[in-house]
Design brief:
Blueprint: H1 12-15, E1 108-110, E2 135-139, E3 145-150, E4 180-187, E5 195-201
């Protein structure tokens, strides 16, 4: 058992309001710590360390193990793909089930050369349901839109950027774009700020 779960130099048992005169990390009066996690029953559950009657004796507030057998009983939808069911997401201190910060202003390098490595623009989380109304525009250095799609998807090969133009400008539709730097604008379609950055194509 980790005696100092937040690594601040003070044992959990003391932070939990218990007496630990001998410094062994155990409650001096075990009758005040029903689940044996080192946190007094009077404050257990108030600070995200589980509750006083947690039968699986863990301190994970996001663990919906109601049976106490180590099996997560609520394996419901996980909208943001963080491994935590929506029913308890937001209780973990890491935001809610829909995390607009999942998609950031990033720069990308793609190499659509058939080696199956970085052959297309992979945008993390873009296939989450809350982003299905997104619009992606890719612009060349002269300011011309060379690629535009509504509902960009890493999964759907018809809606992902593989270095091929679908816009007008000096490049014909379905032409491979030349090696170089391009700029993108990604509107997530949910009112959050537009994401921007550059994409380097290397063949």
């Amino acid at each position: 058992q980790d005696l100092d779960s937040d690594d601040d130099g003070v044992n959990d048992v003391v932070e939990g309001g218990n007496s630990d005169i001998d410094g062994d990390g155990q409650v001096d009066n075990p009758l005040d710590d029903t689940d044996g996690d080192g946190i007094a029953d009077s404050v257990d559950g108030l600070d995200g360390h589980g509750d006083a009657n947690d039968p699986d004796n863990d301190s994970d507030a996001t663990d919906p193990d109601s049976g106490g057998n180590g099996v997560v009983t609520d394996s419901g939808t996980d909208s943001d793909g963080d491994g935590i069911a929506d029913s308890v997401d937001g209780l973990d201190g890491f935001g809610d089930a829909y995390d607009d910060n999942c998609i950031k202003d990033e720069n990308y390098i793609i190499s659509p050369n058939g080696d199956n490595l970085n052959n297309y623009l992979h945008i993390e989380c873009i296939d989450n349901p809350e982003y299905r109304n997104n619009t992606l525009e890719i612009i060349n250095r002269w300011g011309n839109i060379v690629y535009r799609v509504k509902g960009y998807s890493n999964i759907d090969s018809n809606k992902r950027f593989e270095g091929i133009s679908n816009g007008r400008a000096t490049i014909s539709v379905d032409d491979k774009l030349p090696v170089g730097t391009y700029f993108y604008k990604l509107n997530l379609g949910n009112g959050s700020p537009i994401r921007k950055g550059w994409i380097y194509i290397n063949r």
